[in-house]
Write a structure and sequence with these properties.
about 45% helix; Ribose 5-phosphate Isomerase B, Chain: A; about 15% strand; 6 helices; about 140 residues; five-stranded parallel beta sheet; alpha/beta
Length: about 140
Amino acid sequence: MIYLGADHRGYQLKERVKNFLNEIGLEYQDLGNYKYEENDDYADFGRLVAQKVSENPDKDKGILICGSGVGMDISANRFKCVRSVLASSSELAVSSRKDDDTNVLSLGSNFVGEKRAEEIIKAWLETEFTGEEKRIRRLRKIDI
């Protein structure tokens, strides 16, 4: 399952991401915000998505969107077994999956347009973790 979350600054891009996920046939669950609310807080949606991913971190994934992406990224990374990447390029997204087995992708709507977001998401979802011993060792050190 892919869980989606966005605050007011990420709301429009999240709606476009839902269309993209529908087009490529991937299942997702939108955890909000369900409408544009100027005074909502990124932390509320980051928490909802990260909680869900932390329940099944090896299978589930999350995509979070706010204005800069930073707030969502920080919020998500506070949860056990959640490894969020703030990606502004496909290359960064691929590297994060291969090397760090990221399970949450944070995007900044002020810096990533719809087309680039689609490219980043596609690359991130299609990339597998290498499973190298050194990578696993490093992840164990942060999942204490």
